[in-house]
Each structure stands twice: as structure tokens, then as C-alpha cells.
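--- STAGE predict ---
source: upstream dedup step, 1 unique chain passed
mode: sequence only
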Amino acid sequence: MTKILAIETSCDETAAAVIENGQHIRSNVVASQIDIHRRYGGIFPEIASRQHILALTTVVQDAMTQAGADWNDLDAVAVTHGPGLAGSLLVGVNAAKGMALALDLPLIGVNHLEGHLYSNWLKTDDETPVPRFPSVCLIVSGGHTELVLIRGHLDYEVLGRTLDDAAGEAFDKVARLMGLGYPGGPAIQRAAQEGNPTAFDLPRARLRGTLDFSFSGLKTAVLRIVQRYTDKIQSPADTAVVQLPLRSLPVAHLAASFQMAVVDVLVEKTCQAAERFDAAEILISGGVSANTVLRREMIARADRPVRVPPLFLCTDNAAMIGAVAHHRFLAGQFADLDLDVIPNLRLG
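--- STAGE serialize ---
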């Protein structure tokens, strides 16, 4: 039995968790910075790192208290060391190093994207079976859109990734164009509820012959539509000069059409990958996996079981880092105290 304290500070969530045997969540504490960054329309990296410094001690203490754990109960300390914002990652990594050294515990470095994969292995009840191998997982978040083949624990192959914007990034940028605020994913989903997803004929970048993604063309197509309703936007690169409200813009229809264009490509590519590699299951993870249309369409169109984590495990959290760390602990894959952050760390 392993009990691991995990820390996650890759972006704008300060998180700590105590995970037992890689599946059981004894605690999972997250301090969000959304309200702070909302006023800037996106994440302000320097502010994010400062907030991690302010919040981390309390978050770790709360995680230990909620788990009913003593420091002597721990088998290891795990931490995200990439990818992410350099300043944010440094806060978590340095704190984890200090704790591992003081407690004479192994230190385990975890790839943030691995964490999203393993959010599907965390149990919220004793009845749910763990995923079967091989699985195809769609990681879809603010910074990443990747298709990953999981052959076994710690055995992955990236099948495709975005060539430009991640899906979540596209949601944020399009929401800003339409004046819907930050974060863009939930804002667009709310706006789309009253919209017609076929109202606008938006492009889908199929990228035939590959399992890669591209959303920049879709984003530009939305920009051109918005420009028809306002003369305040200067160029595709200058989205900050949008002056709102855009009173005549059919926001609900445009939001619904954009959302469906993104979902169509995500579902199509994932189903192709699952068929090509004869996956036993399809997994979805990352912040955008909370999108109800994506969940609905994937389940409806896939010809095999689809698994999605509960909402609280879709966004960044430390429980998923602890789930990965359990398997690295069993494999004896420990980090030295010179563990460094790798902001552009890749999976596989």
C-alpha cells in the first residue's frame, strides 16, 4: 500500500492531494485563481506564481488534515515538473524538494499530461472498474490537445496533437472575441445552450491521413463573422481591441456552431484512433472534457465504451498527479533533488 502526497502548480491552480494505492482519494484540495485572472481576460503568469507561493502551505496542510494523515504515513512526495508556466512549476517543485528532503522521502517528478491520463484511474466508489488496456485517451485542455495510446501503465504513445491552438485555448480566444469572458469553455457552453449549432457553416480541419488537430482556421473564421457585426477589431492577432457589447451579433448561434465544430473534429479523430489501434475503451480527460456536448457526442458516436472523469477531476488537480506517482513508485522511478522544471515537457 502506498500513500503519496502530490502537488500540482503547473498553471493557475494550487493543488495538493493524498492518494492511496494510486486510486483512492484521501484528500484533494484545490485553490483556484480564476477570479484573479478573469479581470485580465486570461492567465497572468507572474501573478499566478505569486499566488502559488501564498497558497501552497495552506493547501498542503489542508490536504494532510483532510486525509487524516501524519507526515510519517507518507511513502513519497510527487510533483508536477512540466509542462506549464515556468514560474508556477518552480513553486511546486521547490516545495516538494524541501518536503522530500526534510522527511527523507523519495521525490517523484510527474508529467502534467500523464496526470490527465490517470485521472481516469481515480476511484470515486468501489464499484467502478479501472480502464482496460489498450485505451485511447483524448487529452483536451486549455494548453493541450493530444491523442494518446495507452498500452499499459507508464507505456504511452502520442498518436496526434494540435499543430497550433489547443481546443481550450481556442475556446478562450473565441469567447473573448464574442465578449463572453474568461474562462472561455464554460462561457461558450452557457451561451450555446439557446443556439443552433448549424446556424453558421464553420470549417473543420480534418488533416486527412493524420490524427493531428488544428483550430486556428476555425478561430479565424469566427473572427471574420464577428467583423461583419462590428468594425472595432483591427486584425486576427489583435483580439484585445474588441469593443463590446456586439448587440447585433447572434452570440448563441455562433457559440453553438463553434462548439460543435470543435467537438466534431475531436470526436471524429478519437474514434478513428480507437478503431485503428483496436482500443478496449476511449478515455477523455482535461478541462475541456467537462464540456457536456463533447461527452454526449463521444458516447453517441463511439462504437466502444467511453470513460470520462467526474467534473472535479477534469480540471487541474493534484489527485491525478498522485495516481501517476503510485506507478512510478512501484517502478522505482524516483527523481534526484536536482529535478528541474520543463515548461515544454512532452508526453512520450
